Amino acid sequence: MKTLFIIRHAKSSWLLGAENDFDRPLNDRGKTEGPEMAKRLHKRISEISCFISSPARRARKTAKYFAHEFGQTENDIRLVPELYYAATETFFDVVSSINNYCQSAAIFSHNPGITEFVNLLTTNRIDNMPTSGIFAVRTSIENWNEFRKGEKEFFFFDYPKL
């Protein structure tokens, strides 16, 4: 049994100044909700084996909150440039590349691709993946490269305002 947690980055600042979109930081709400959602997830499950994130600043920081909550460090987060505004195909490719020793994995990315991806996984559809939202599925596959065709079961959907 494998479990996949798809997590949208926490709320970010739109006050760009000289920064570009890739380097946008979390705002105060994001700095509060990111760690809170990590704690909520940890109350629900005891372990996440692998952390994979877009290298964009807001996604990396969100992943860091979750990794820290689960006893990992920022160095344990695998950064995948393709997850920055990824298409659904990219998400499937990233999941297929997860090391099979990982029984559970968390992927941190962005809209609109993240909403499109989770809506392909089960019959549980969402209109919009909110910031700090967590969509979780379970599958009985043995190898992550079987994920696309494997049967997926909705586990839960959680977000800060729920």
Q: Spans with pLDDT under 50 lasting ≥5 residues?
A: none
Domain module tally? 1
Write down the Rg: 14 Å
Shape label: globular
Compressed to H and E, one letter per element, the order equals EHEHEHEHEE
The percentage helix is 25-40%
- CATH-defined architecture: 3-Layer(aba) Sandwich
| Global structural class | alpha/beta
Counting copies of identical and different chains, the oligomeric state is: single chain
Average pLDDT over all residues: 96
Summarize the biggest pleated sheet.
6 strands, mixed
**Can you list the strand order of the major beta sheet?**
3-2-4-1-5-6
CATH fold-level name: Rossmann fold
State the name of the first-level CATH class.
Answer: Alpha Beta
Strand content: 15-25%
N-to-C CA distance: 27 Å
Description:
The protein is globular. It starts with a strand and ends with a strand. α1 (28-44) runs parallel beside α2 (57-69). The chain has helices at 28-44, 57-69, 88-96, 113-121, and strands spanning 2-8, 50-53, 77-79, 104-109, 134-139, 152-158. The chain is an alpha/beta fold. It has a single domain (2-13, 20-158), classed as Rossmann fold (3-Layer(aba) Sandwich). β2, α2 (57-69) and β3 (77-79) form a beta-alpha-beta unit. Helices cover 30% and strands 20% of the residues.
